[in-house]
Amino acid sequence: MTRTDWSQWDNLQWRRRLETFGDDDGPVVARGPKGEIDGVCNLGELTDKGRETTLALGQRYTIPENIKSREPAKFAGRFSLRHLYVDQLGFMPSLIANADTIYLRATPMPRALESVQQSFWGMYPPTARTASFPPPTITTRTSADETLFPNEGSCRRFAQLSSAFAQRAADRWNNTSEMDFLNTLISKWMPAGGRVAVDSHPRLSGIMDTVNSTLAHGPETLLPPEFYHHRGREIIDKIGVEEWFSGYKESNEYRKVGIGSLVGDIVSKLMYSVEGNGNDGLLEVGGRDGDLGKGGRGETDIRFSMSGCHDTTLAAILSSLGAFEGEKWPPYTSHIAVELFREKIHSSGKLTSGRTSFDENKTVETIKSQKQSLWSSIFGTAKEKLSRSIPAPEGMVRRTMDELKAEEKEKLDGYYVRIRYNDRPMTIPGCKLPGKHLEGDETFCTLEAFKRIADKFTPEHWKKSCVSNLDSPAFPKVMEEAGY
């Protein structure tokens, strides 16, 4: 029977198998390490182990001990969205009827989308959703507009800068005793007997990816033991972190075109929460099927947001805030939490803040992992009702601190921002200064101080910044230290 009503779509279940070249150059079905022909992952896709850890990230339970580690090749764990925000704090409801207060986003990479799906499913499994729960909206962008990872492919200036810093790392490390040691370990497996180098083929960072991936997935995928030599892995990690992330520590322009747009969006969400402006979800997500506006699937007054991104996103954010010093490459299922606190005035007239006043908090939670990366945020509700038209940004949300009036700046008083990386509170250098943090805890940065730091590398127009200064030197005349 031919169907003519396409207002409803059927679900076609299908099975995918990968195909590759056989010995005679003809097509054959690809097989896994044990001869599997179904469920075989393509390069860069989320594995079953990745699904397990991202599901656990959302659940009430912690990530299992046997797959939990802060070693770069394994998985970051112990943190659980549902356990903290539903069971422990009661910030999010235990049962939801719709996703109108939830914002989900992913990069174009399939593993990022799958990570979001798994974590959301873990936090709100079928038993925590009503029978009438509609499909949640997951927002994506075209590659040209993507800012959820440092976008070399669509930002020419960032491509220039990242290439220059990568070449500096190659010049600095290729002819050192550390690189000689790596070559004694693994050069015998390089194509055509080539030498291991920062810019070799494969690149040193590519070797690191393979080592970490194979080490995380058991004996069937392991390389020769020389690839897992402790000192060798330490050297590879150190060089990789410098090659990929030193630019964020040293150059404000690098921060601006690399990750500044995303950080600006994070700050905007904090400001939406403070200002009580319900436009945040409406501007980002929209409304019902085929329409824009509040209601049905029109996510407004966002309380929780989760975005699937990447390891390079994590380290870029932390490095740009001066909070990645001495860190290793982000482990799998890593996450960043950006939390917004508000001081609570008790009947005694005294102020308390932080962990003891979640009932009054407006909290922002940001989660990331990579190679399966998560960025998740929780925001306070807003009071303002919106029309079904598309509003423009208003108030103080997208304006810098210097552009705010005195009375607007006063609205930020009593708010604090904390960054947690894999459940460890991180300290931003500029927040250590007197008056820039909660008394007694430097990890709680005042919102004003945090915004001033972020404003310095938030581009006014990211795409314009990406085609600016193309004839300028890649390195600043003096180091422009991050986190201030």
So what's the oligomer here? single chain
What order do the SSEs take from the amino end to the carboxyl end, as H and E?
EEHHEHEHHHHHHEHEEEEHEEEEHH
Query: How many alpha or pi helices?
Result: 13
Gross geometry: globular
The gyration radius over C-alpha positions equals: 24 Å
Query: What is the first-to-last residue Cα distance?
Result: 66 Å
Query: What helical percentage do the residues reach?
Result: 25-40%
- Low-pLDDT regions: 62-74, 293-298, 346-390
Chain-averaged pLDDT: 83
Structural class: alpha+beta
Tell me the major beta sheet.
9 strands, mixed
| Total beta-strand segments | 13
Report strand %: 5-15%
Short overview:
With 484 residues, the protein is an alpha+beta fold. It has helices at 48-58, 81-88, 110-123, 156-173, 177-186, 204-216, 230-250, 252-275, 279-284, 311-320, 406-410, 447-455, 462-466; strands at residues 19-21, 27-29, 102-106, 138-139, 304-309, 335-342, 344-345, 351-352, 373-378, 415-421, 424-426, 437-438, 441-446.
Write the layout of secondary structure elements.
Elements (H helix, E strand, L loop, with lengths): L18 E3 L5 E3 L18 H11 L22 H8 L13 E5 L3 H14 L14 E2 L16 H18 L3 H10 L17 H13 L13 H21 L1 H24 L3 H6 L19 E6 L1 H10 L14 E8 L1 E2 L5 E2 L20 E6 L27 H5 L4 E7 L2 E3 L10 E2 L2 E6 H9 L6 H5 L18
Parallel strand pairs: 3-4, 3-5, 6-9
Antiparallel strand pairs: 1-2, 5-9, 6-10, 7-8, 10-11, 10-13, 12-13
